[in-house]
Design goal:
Helices cover 17% and strands 42% of the residues. It is α+β, with helices and mostly antiparallel strands and 441 residues long. The chain folds into four domains: 57 residues, SH3 type barrels (Roll), CATH 2.30.30; 81 residues, SH3 Domains (SH3 type barrels), CATH 2.30.30.40; 106 residues; 135 residues, no CATH class.
Length: 441
Amino acid sequence: MKNRTIILTTSLILLTLSGCGNLGTAVVLWPPEDSRWEPGDLVTVKDESILRSTYIVNLPNQRRLKEEIDQWRLRLYRREKEAVAFAVNMGDWQHVYAECLYQGLPMRSEPSNTASRLYRFREGDIIKVLGRNPGPVQVGNLEGYWYHVIANGGVEGYVFDYYLRVMRIKNGESEILNLRDTDDPVLDNILAKAWRPIIFNDMITNRQIDLTIFRPEYGLFPDFDKQTLTLQLPETSVVETWTEIVPAGRNRYDFLGTSFRITVNSEYFISVQYNDEGTEHYKAFVRLDRNIADIIENEINRRDAVLERLLEMGPVYGSRAYGELAILEDGRFTWSGKSSLISRGIITSLAGNNGKLEFDHFTEPVIATSHEGVLSLRFDNGEAVRFLYAFEDDGLRLLHVPGNAIDDRRVRTDQYIDPIRLFFVPLSPKMSDEGFALPDR
């Protein structure tokens, strides 16, 4: 029974490979790797295998020897002169291939972006070019040519070349045929320098530099030599390498091989679309004329100047209702006798008396004229209390800021339902011991 099965199978294969006479003449479109054939060669097709979708062809100058080739790699004609005409038309395109540079690039049934889609290429796919339509033509905001191509496997149609690298490959050498003018001042502007989060510009304009965010490592950093885009923000870090940059519209560019698309709104302003952990993000970035390090240094100097003034006016301040506040040279403080704040729920009894001064909050412009800034006192247990402050001739005026008046480190208003106002006068080291009259506030 087993031998009979083998005989029947062998007979079926022989039947599929057998035939009377020739099927015709074929032109080699895309020879197999390491093949004896080259694109444009003419071969005599002796027969076909329906089971394997192959043609059986004569070897050149060896009529008795045959080779089996996938049908999609050949273009069969019944009449030899038709095959010759097609081979002649291939002309300069015999050894031309293309590499897909864009994931999902469509192949169309006709050289039109409205024609039906036959196939989608993956980034990196190699395509055999059969010819090119006259052109160039405009497709949307892009200019290029429609190429007549065949995909690996035999699907045939047309692809617009803006996302192709078209190459002539012969004798082991490669020549790119669709090199474009690289003189693009808009793109050069993107790649020239670092881009900073748009909030940096807002901070500079408002003179409110939040040093937890305004840092030199935050921004979008193109590196043309390495072909990388590095995006660093407080909440995310993305580094991707591009293979090519192609226009995706007016002043808009896709960085192929990455998730980045950048739109240039002006010389100093760009919009960036990218993907991070499966989520699309849209961020705005600006180019700053000023040096980041200088701005940070100026802000540190501003904060140091406030501390210096607190030390010079005090450094110990007293209030009959709110105790004694001492400012130390290293930016720390001690605050005793503040039971009124504890009773009003501003801090807890666990806060203790020691902590650190912070200057990391700011005022909205509408209240900036009435206050010099925001003073934060963070106790060593982590509790923090914040005040709008102003220096006066006879002391330090404070207005407690409730948490609901703060948005993104900015104090929005100084109008509160039950305001808590404090006034401290400077004390000499012995004033409180000698019975100096402290203010009730």
